[in-house]
Amino acid sequence: MPGRSPTTVHQLKVTLRGVKPSIWRRVQVPSTINLRRLHDVIQATMGWTQSHLYAFEIDGEQYGEPSPYDDVQTRSAKSTQLRRIAPEAGARFLYTYDFGDNWEHLVLVEKVLAPERGVDYPRCVTGKRACPPEDCGGIWGYQEFLDAIRDPEHPEHDNLLEWIGGSFDPEAFDLQVVNAMLAAPNPSPWDR
Predict the structure, then answer these.
(1) Rounded Cα–Cα distance for residues 69 and 16 (Å)
(2) What are the residue ranges of helices labelled H in the chain?
(3) Measuring CA to CA, which of 13, 55, 58, 175 is 20 to 30 A from 34?
(4) What is the pTM of this model?
């Protein structure tokens, strides 16, 4: 959103549920951001690759990509602004990514701030730990993955290291890389 300054900014803490130690990101986004774009922001900051479906659950309502074939009524994420569904600090809601692996994230509105002069939003302020690899089998599969890559005697050790590209550091988090991803043009297939 370079060139335009939002009137207010939501500071969010996005925490992947069920993983210890915790994996989380603190992001600042324009309060007017729609949930579709917030999905893009969470994908970039967590390190997901937009390979699967997603949904937000707020006050019992589901927001995502509506389809006439779904059993659950889904409201449009594209036409729903963050400030409308979570207007103030303390608001909480869920973001689920990949309905097979079922990665649930708790999103907490920490603050609603005035924008800083000269700052482009969205931006990531800080975070902890690497995101689990795509398609590793959810929380339980991720733990099995970590056990296997740490143990050279594990029968899947070599295969999983090859699958992940040679190495994986679960403690890694690079704020510069995350913010570069946020500044890149949005390649989302739903925006075409």
Answers:
(1) 28
(2) 35-46, 82-85, 138-150, 157-164, 175-183
(3) 175
(4) 0.90
Q: Determine the structural domain holding residue 136 and report its residue range.
A: 132-170
Regarding whether 35 and 63 lie in a shared domain, the answer is yes
* CATH label of the domain that carries residue 185: 3.10.290.30
Is there a contact between 12 and 94 (Cβ–Cβ < 8 Å)? no
> Are 53 and 146 part of one and the same domain?
no
- From the number of C-beta atoms within 10 Å of its C-beta (0-12, 13-18, 19+), residue 41 rates as buried
Same domain for 74 and 25: yes
Q: How many CB atoms lie within 10 A of CB 57?
A: 14
Residue 125 has what pLDDT? Answer: 98
Question: What does the pLDDT read at residue 65?
Answer: 87
Tokens of 172: 């890694």
**Number of domain units in the chain:** 2
Distance from CA of residue 130 to its chain's centroid? 12
Sequence-distant (≥ 6) Cβ neighbours of residue 93 within 8 angstroms: 56, 57, 58, 59, 85, 86, 107
The confidence score (pLDDT) of residue 69 equals 72
φ, ψ of residue 28 in degrees (nearest 5): -120, 130
Check residue 4 and give its pLDDT. 62
The predicted pLDDT at position 192 comes to: 30
